[in-house]
Specification:
Elements (H helix, E strand, L loop, with lengths): L1 H40 L7 H8 E5 L7 H9 L3 H11 L2 H12 L6 H12 L6 H11 L3 E5 L3
Antiparallel strand pairs: 1-2
């Protein structure tokens, strides 16, 4: 009985190996074909207008940890609250995720463009100008310092 089980297992193993090899070969061929097709007509996408400014600015937080933005803005300069509300309205659901992650990555050494890319990797959303606008607002309130770096 055990010989029959071993023989069956060996046949299945060979079938599985053959199937995996065939699938890998097909995938590699398809990948090579896609690369050949895509290399012919791909041109780099133009940089968004906000990106050049975001590459020059490095935010440095004045306080540790994430800020309670609306409370801090109200305490520092209540005139900035309508700008925050407009930003929240425009960004919708992504506002709180993006801004919390952006503050996390703001360590005084990363540019806003790098921070936007890191946030994009975490959220799965394309990089946007939201971190740039948010850090500008925080800078107006004195919650972060935006240091300009030469390119």
């Amino acid at each position: 009985m055990s010989a029959v089980i071993l023989e069956t297992a060996a046949r299945e193993l060979h079938w599985t190996e053959d199937e995996a090899t065939a699938n890998a070969s097909t995938a590699l061929a398809r990948d090579g074909q896609l690369k050949a097709e895509s290399s012919n007509d791909v041109s780099p996408a133009p940089e968004p207008k906000w990106r050049a400014e975001a590459e020059r600015l490095v935010p440095r937080r004045e306080c540790l940890g994430p800020s309670s933005t609306s409370t801090a803005l109200q305490a520092k300069d209540g005139k900035l609250l309508p700008a925050l509300w407009a930003m929240i309205e425009e960004a919708g659901d992504e506002f709180h995720d993006v801004t919390a992650l952006a503050e996390y990555w703001a360590d005084g050494s990363r540019s806003i463009a790098v921070i936007a890319d890191l946030v994009s990797l975490e959220t799965g959303r394309p990089p946007s100008d939201l971190p740039l606008r948010y850090f500008r607002l925080l800078a107006q309130a004195g919650l972060v310092e935006l240091q300009e770096t030469p390119l």
